Structures are given as structure tokens and as C-alpha cells.
Amino acid sequence: MISAKNDPTHNVIELRLPSQAEWVGVARLAIAGIASRLDFGIEDIEDLKLAVAEAYTNCIQHAASDGEVRIECAIHPDKLVIAVHDQGKGFNGAEIAPRKLGEPQERGLGVFLIRTLMDDVSYEVDPRRGTRLTMIKHVRPQQPAQ
């Protein structure tokens, strides 16, 4: 389901997709379409697509497979705020702190990528309501092609 809400300060678009891997591509395409309506450059759009795909994948891994993933995009003139929400019991995103690149680890690469690609990232975890990952990407002035 895709819905849109108008607000005097920004527009909000919400996607509700099944918590299944085959829907990650749909989320990536939707984010690319939304970001292209703003003044994001190609590299920033690719970063947004990858961050949303990683967030969606984390939802699939940590939430019930029969649930849904909700993606809310708040479109502001100078930024895009993306909240990815699932109904899983969640995990503590702060515990997956950025590590040195040479340090081996089994999990947390997706969180590391999200933090690297986005300007601001925050988690809200509630065992009864799920996990909400909020990511912000600011629109940067595009450099002219040379």
C-alpha cells in the first residue's frame, strides 16, 4: 500500500510492504523515485537506495516474516527523512557501534553502511511495537559536470 499525506511544511509518503526479501527491490525503486523529485544527485540517490535496502533487510531478519515493513518518507525542501518500521522485538542499534574496518564481525555491516551513507541515523526500539529506524539525508547543491 502506498499513501501520501500533505502537510504545510512537508509531504509524507508511506509504503507498507510484506516482510519478505522479494519486496526489497520495490522499496529501492520507490525511494529512487521519491529522491529524484528532489535535487539529489545520482550518487546520493544510490546511497539512499542502498540504505533503505539494508534497513529493509534488517527488518526481515529481526521481525516476523508474516508481518509488514512500513517506510515513511517525509519530504522537506532541504532533506528527506526516511523512517523504516517493523513489528519485531528489535535489537539495540547503539550496541552495533562502528568498528575499525579491519575488525572481523559477523553482523552489523548493514547498520555500518546505513550510518556511513546517511547524514543522521537514530533508532527507537519498543519490544511491544517494534523497531523504528529514522534516516536523514540532506540535499546538497549539485556540482556542474566538467
Short description:
The chain is an alpha+beta fold and 146 residues long. It has helices at 24-37, 42-62, 109-117, and strands at residues 2-6, 11-18, 68-75, 79-86, 120-126, 130-138.
What's the SSE blueprint?
Elements: E1 2-6, E2 11-18, H1 24-37, H2 42-62, E3 68-75, E4 79-86, H3 109-117, E5 120-126, E6 130-138
Antiparallel strand pairs: 1-2, 2-3, 3-4, 4-6, 5-6
Helix pairs in contact: 1-2, 2-3
Please supply descriptive tags for the structure shown above.
146 residues; alpha+beta; Heat Shock Protein 90; six-stranded antiparallel β-sheet; 3 helices; 30% helix; globular
Write a structural description.
This protein is α+β, with helices and mostly antiparallel strands and 146 residues long. The protein has one domain: 2-Layer Sandwich (Heat Shock Protein 90), CATH 3.30.565. It contains three helices and six strands. The chain has helices at 24-37, 42-62, 109-117, and strands spanning 2-6, 11-18, 68-75, 79-86, 120-126, 130-138. It has a six-stranded antiparallel beta sheet with strand order 1-2-3-4-6-5, with helices on one face. Helix 1 (24-37) runs antiparallel to helix 2 and helix 2 (42-62) packs antiparallel against helix 3. It is globular. It starts with a strand and ends in an 8-residue tail after the last strand.
